[in-house]
Amino acid sequence: MDFKIKRKSTKSAIAGGLLETYPHDLQMYKLPPVGDISLQEFETLALERLILLRCLATATTLKGLRLYSEEWCDFILGDLRSQGIKYYVKLCEKSGCSTQDVDLQARRKDHIAHFILRLAYCRTEELRRWFISREIELFRMRFMTMKGDSVDNFFTINNLCYTNISEEEKDELIINLRESTHHPNIDKMKFYKVKFFEVLDLVKTRKVYLKGGYAYISHKDFISVLTAQYRVHLRQSLAIACHHLGEIEQDERLVSLLKGLHQSYTGNDYSDSKAVIPIESLDSLSIKSFPLCMRQLHEFLRSTHHLKHGGRLQYGLFLKGIGVTLEDSLKFWREEFTKVMDLDKFEKQYSYNVRYNYGKEGSKKNYSPFNCLKIINNNVGPGECHGCPFKHSDANVLKNKLKGYGFEQQALHDVVDLAKRGHYQIACSKYFDVVHSSNIGLGINHPNQYFEESQKLLKGDLKLEPKKDIKPTIKHEKNDIEEMDFDENF
Amino acid sequence: MAKQYDESLLSDMLPIYYSRLFPQSLFCRWLTCGNYPQPLGNRELSFTLADDVYLRYLSINNQKELHTLFQKKCPYKLDIGPVYNTKPSIGRHDAVVLARELVFDIDLTDYDEIRTCCQEAKVCDKCWKFMVLACEVINTALKEDFGFQNILWVFSGRRGIHCWVSDHEARVLDSPGRTALADYMCLISGGENQYRKVHLGNDNLHSSIRRAIGIIDKYFNTILEEQEFLSTTDRLNSFLKIVPDEALRTQTQETLENMPSSSLERWETFVTIYNQYCKQNANAMRKIKYLVEELKIQYCYPRLDAHVTKGFNHLLKSPFSIHPKTGKVSIVFKPENAKNMKLNDIPTIHTLLDDSSKENAQHQANMRTAVKNFQEVVFMLEKTEAMRRKTEASVSIDF
């Protein structure tokens, strides 16, 4: 969106009243808001929206709730209530088309706040991705809680017209529809035909019947079509907003505010380390201070003298993050790899990779080590052992591994059980406590954070104290929220 | 046996191969269609020269330039990249990718944990069956589910196959689209620490999975016997690790260990045990409802290198490129003929150029067939492209 244009257009006055502008609780944010707003309201709206988005992130990552599940929604609504942001509760709980002034005001705030955050979050690719993921979650959640009438209204307002397939066509396909669509009562539903790329999330998870490039969806699946459109729209809008940042930043009052908004939460990305770690100490460190994902990669590398691409990336960046220099890193990989290949091959095929990780090749970007979410959502293929061991291991394999590390029965059971139930990061935190014989209950979001906390503990900077007194960990949790991101390829 | 292949002679053989045998004109026509509406010059080509010197961001404007480039550089390997918004040599890192064929790469090394006849770079006619099956499963899904028509299948030169989809919709599909499509096709996932790599849940089986199992069933017994998946203690143990239910596992182990080592018989016995077990334990049944299907998939279903499909700008070896290590030509084949392909019949550069060699006539003929297969795909593509442009033009006139 373009702030300048927005300012100019204020002169042509607001077109119509609030009711015409905001007929529905749920909006697609197609047009930027017009009108005047005080700096103070600007700031308040932005911060409240930020609380909302961060709340969505917390629900999924720190609380480990399944996306869009009932508990997930409840947690978010509860949190918003306790933070006193009532109008978002209203908008999220059951969207509708009421014409009361309170609702209209809420919609206005929602609209403006969304556009302010676009400005704050368009700066970098990473911020954009975080913002888009959260806004999509918000949109889906609000759509899901909508009642029948409101859904119809929403479609009319947004000009979404689709015609259902004929009964004959449906009868012909009914077996396939029953097989491939995950809804009860298929027989009573109307089905619609859309191109497969309009419902990629359903294609990806094999939840839709495909034939000849078309996806056959029921009305319940329209949320997929909508989110896909909304995602494209957001992506483009953020790119445009980014282009116009220069003009906006001529206004100093806004600059400090907008920059402050995202900067206060970007946190440490561990791409530069001040410490220097000698490679000779990696073996002992891997036992004492590496999270299991890295320890496992280290051991795999030491025993097979090779790691596939995914593993090299995950482990290589981690090593950079803890403070292994480029020279040492090259030496380290060379030493292992040349046990199974000649030096020439290593220099030609692999040293590029190592230098690339340090931003010395290709696009010369200084890459950040992977955080937990990225690792957890990684694909792990045959012959590979990267990823998160709590997710990407069979329970038996994990059990045996921990047993091999000398875990006691009870501790072992606890960790494996947490992993089984899908609480990977909590399992990791438990693993930390067992290894350090502590009882801190860290919130772990990043392997490099794990390493730093471990080092602090071992060097005695951090005292073994009960959970609630550990301030640094809580700070970390907040700092890393921005980085926690789903791979946007949904 | 033909004369041993000698890599050091490649620099002498390649110029002749490129000017006499490489289908330059068809190659350019194929890429030109695939580039539309951008000019051919916006497509990235990359060469690997002798001693692994790597040239990226090359491009050609026409067949003549291709010919000159071949003669000047004599690439050991030829890769094809995406279509950019500008000439790739100018844009480099800033260029935007506009289009590229939707590609699939299936490599037998990804089958190492299940195939027993060969490992790593080795490949034989037995493990080639995995490729035949993979080709059929993917080809069918691309045609029936996604409605694609212009699909080119290529032997990768050593131990795998590539697939290029040139339909307009496929070419302009964005990254999330490619990811979704790849994930739709991938049923096997998991690394070194996961034995059980297929999870079908307990809901209905998706139509595409049911169809894939139908295809697997055509080959399953042959592959099972040839690979002897269950015939030794080690293999039986890795099989048992995939069986999630402990009681069923123990029962299977006890029975199978005490019977003849034929894999087919052992498998059939397992299926009987499984069916009985499910009848008796309705509870356990829910968890392992599709165990037999899951096992079949884990042992036979195509193992895609999904990175290649997901990436917009992943380079992929060109058809009719020579594999520098084997001398084999990356021939184009018809998916329905994959099962008749013999690895020894795949033309190599040295037999093609040596008319005294015994296989020369056979390899020449196979090379001609491969070019003809390529030609068919290119003609078809040109036809559909022409039709598409016509409809597009008439639509824009309507407005």
UniProtKB/TrEMBL annotation, chain A:
<dbReference type="GO" id="GO:0006270">
    <property type="term" value="P:DNA replication initiation"/>
</dbReference>
<feature type="binding site">
    <location>
        <position position="428"/>
    </location>
    <ligand>
        <name>[4Fe-4S] cluster</name>
    </ligand>
</feature>
<feature type="binding site">
    <location>
        <position position="372"/>
    </location>
    <ligand>
        <name>[4Fe-4S] cluster</name>
    </ligand>
</feature>
<dbReference type="GO" id="GO:0051539">
    <property type="term" value="F:4 iron, 4 sulfur cluster binding"/>
</dbReference>
<dbReference type="InterPro" id="IPR058560">
    <property type="entry name" value="DNA_primase_C"/>
</dbReference>
<keyword id="KW-0238">DNA-binding</keyword>
<keyword id="KW-0479">Metal-binding</keyword>
<feature type="binding site">
    <location>
        <position position="293"/>
    </location>
    <ligand>
        <name>[4Fe-4S] cluster</name>
    </ligand>
</feature>
<dbReference type="GO" id="GO:0003677">
    <property type="term" value="F:DNA binding"/>
</dbReference>
<dbReference type="GO" id="GO:0006269">
    <property type="term" value="P:DNA replication, synthesis of primer"/>
</dbReference>
<dbReference type="InterPro" id="IPR007238">
    <property type="entry name" value="DNA_primase_lsu_euk/arc"/>
</dbReference>
<dbReference type="Pfam" id="PF04104">
    <property type="entry name" value="DNA_primase_lrg"/>
</dbReference>
<feature type="binding site">
    <location>
        <position position="388"/>
    </location>
    <ligand>
        <name>[4Fe-4S] cluster</name>
    </ligand>
</feature>
<keyword id="KW-0411">Iron-sulfur</keyword>
<keyword id="KW-0639">Primosome</keyword>
<comment type="similarity">
    <text>Belongs to the eukaryotic-type primase large subunit family.</text>
</comment>
<dbReference type="InterPro" id="IPR016558">
    <property type="entry name" value="DNA_primase_lsu_euk"/>
</dbReference>
<comment type="function">
    <text>DNA primase is the polymerase that synthesizes small RNA primers for the Okazaki fragments made during discontinuous DNA replication.</text>
</comment>
<dbReference type="GO" id="GO:0005658">
    <property type="term" value="C:alpha DNA polymerase:primase complex"/>
</dbReference>
<keyword id="KW-0235">DNA replication</keyword>
<keyword id="KW-0004">4Fe-4S</keyword>
<protein>
    <recommendedName>
        <fullName>DNA primase large subunit</fullName>
    </recommendedName>
</protein>
Automatic annotation (TrEMBL), chain B:
<dbReference type="GO" id="GO:0003899">
    <property type="term" value="F:DNA-directed RNA polymerase activity"/>
</dbReference>
<comment type="similarity">
    <text>Belongs to the eukaryotic-type primase small subunit family.</text>
</comment>
<dbReference type="GO" id="GO:0006269">
    <property type="term" value="P:DNA replication, synthesis of primer"/>
</dbReference>
<keyword id="KW-0639">Primosome</keyword>
<dbReference type="Pfam" id="PF01896">
    <property type="entry name" value="DNA_primase_S"/>
</dbReference>
<dbReference type="InterPro" id="IPR002755">
    <property type="entry name" value="DNA_primase_S"/>
</dbReference>
<keyword id="KW-0548">Nucleotidyltransferase</keyword>
<keyword id="KW-0479">Metal-binding</keyword>
<dbReference type="GO" id="GO:0005658">
    <property type="term" value="C:alpha DNA polymerase:primase complex"/>
</dbReference>
<dbReference type="InterPro" id="IPR014052">
    <property type="entry name" value="DNA_primase_ssu_euk/arc"/>
</dbReference>
<keyword id="KW-0862">Zinc</keyword>
<keyword id="KW-0235">DNA replication</keyword>
<keyword id="KW-0808">Transferase</keyword>
<keyword id="KW-0804">Transcription</keyword>
<protein>
    <recommendedName>
        <fullName>DNA primase</fullName>
        <ecNumber>2.7.7.-</ecNumber>
    </recommendedName>
</protein>
<dbReference type="GO" id="GO:0046872">
    <property type="term" value="F:metal ion binding"/>
</dbReference>
<keyword id="KW-0240">DNA-directed RNA polymerase</keyword>
